[in-house]
């Protein structure tokens, strides 16, 4: 594999985050907005997606597809950031300014993934 070091960093972050969905599901279930049905299934699906997309980033032939998948995943989970901002129980006691900064930070993560789409 002849990929840049930063793609390994990104892949590691998503794989670790995906594994954490199974190690600490309560944390993720707490931030899934109530208007989504079956939060347990959504937690499992998003965890599996993060692991698979992280692994696919490590394969040159699939890294660009994985990057598009990560972009789609980041967009799909964006409602959790809004819900965390709006709901005190879901905010984990984080300061409001941190919760606000998390939202545009998603754009940074999307831009980072976009770098690997071609």
UniProtKB/TrEMBL annotation:
Main location per the UniProt record: membrane
GO BP: methylamine metabolic process
InterPro entries (UniProt xref): Methylamine_util_MauE
Keywords annotated in UniProt: Membrane, Transmembrane, Transmembrane helix
Protein localization: Membrane
Pfam families (alphabetical): MauE
Methylamine utilisation protein MauE domain span: 8-87
Highest rank taxon of the organism: Bacteria
GO cellular component: membrane
Transmembrane annotation, as ranges: 6-22, 42-59, 65-85, 97-114
Mode of membrane association: Multi-pass membrane protein
Name this polypeptide is given: DoxX family protein
The organism's taxonomic lineage, starting at the top: Bacteria, Pseudomonadati, Bacteroidota, Flavobacteriia, Flavobacteriales
């Amino acid at each position: 594999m002849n990929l840049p070091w930063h793609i390994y960093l990104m892949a590691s972050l998503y794989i670790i985050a995906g594994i954490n969905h199974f190690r600490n599901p309560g944390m993720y279930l707490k931030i899934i907005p109530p208007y989504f049905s079956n939060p347990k299934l959504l937690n499992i699906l998003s965890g599996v997606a993060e692991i698979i997309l992280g692994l696919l980033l490590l394969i040159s032939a699939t890294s660009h597809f994985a990057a598009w998948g990560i972009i789609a995943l980041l967009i799909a989970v964006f409602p959790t950031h809004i819900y965390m901002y709006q709901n005190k129980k879901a905010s984990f006691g984080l300061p409001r300014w941190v919760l606000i900064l998390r939202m545009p930070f998603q754009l940074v993560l999307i831009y980072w993934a976009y770098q690997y789409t071609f």
